[in-house]
């Protein structure tokens, strides 16, 4: 049941925060992943090991997909799968910033049913369960009702703002940035920002938890073509992400240049 899984994810996310905070970002051992996949630290691996042990002990029949674990095709035959990013925003963690997060989700037959995004340095806990709404620190949250892009502030990186991506060469909104994709989606679910756009391929573990937080807060979260997001794919990369309140999501989708 989603609520049963959510309680487990919350407990594990808080423990993940304790593990991560036992390391100092600037001095934690770090190295770069192959093929330009970005940095990783000993804290990422310690959090991943703890989460794998606790979650798989509690749900031994679930599959496992994590940024910091070797992938295993066995998960494709399992109805329930944990989708985990031990530390989303590793660069921020290394820099000593407070906007990195732990992202934990459960997918059932490709649909996310329980989700947690936790920022331990801010003690900010976003949670959602399918049909159960979204909360931030136990307070229900709602996505923005901003009616158009003109008045919208949207989380987007500088490359996304390039005119080539937008009809008429203009995105039409005011941009803002946060480093963690999971946190960006939490902020959209919270209504703090009106939308979020990423146009490049996005790993499932960056998006899974935040996507449910947005939709259970009354927003919409799709790939960049407007297609429904499905999880536990053989290739765990999504075709970009658009998220926001209904009006902003529709406007973002309509304003993208044809590809």
Automatic annotation (TrEMBL):
Keywords: Magnesium, Metal-binding. Gene3D superfamilies: 3.40.190.80, Fructose-1,6-Bisphosphatase, subunit A, domain 1. GO terms for biological process: inositol metabolic process; phosphatidylinositol phosphate biosynthetic process; signal transduction. PROSITE patterns: IMP_2. This is 3'(2'),5'-bisphosphate nucleotidase CysQ. InterPro entries: Inositol_monophosphatase-like, Inositol_monophosphatase_CS. Pfam families: Inositol_P. The keyword Transcription does not apply. One of its GO terms (molecular function) is metal ion binding.
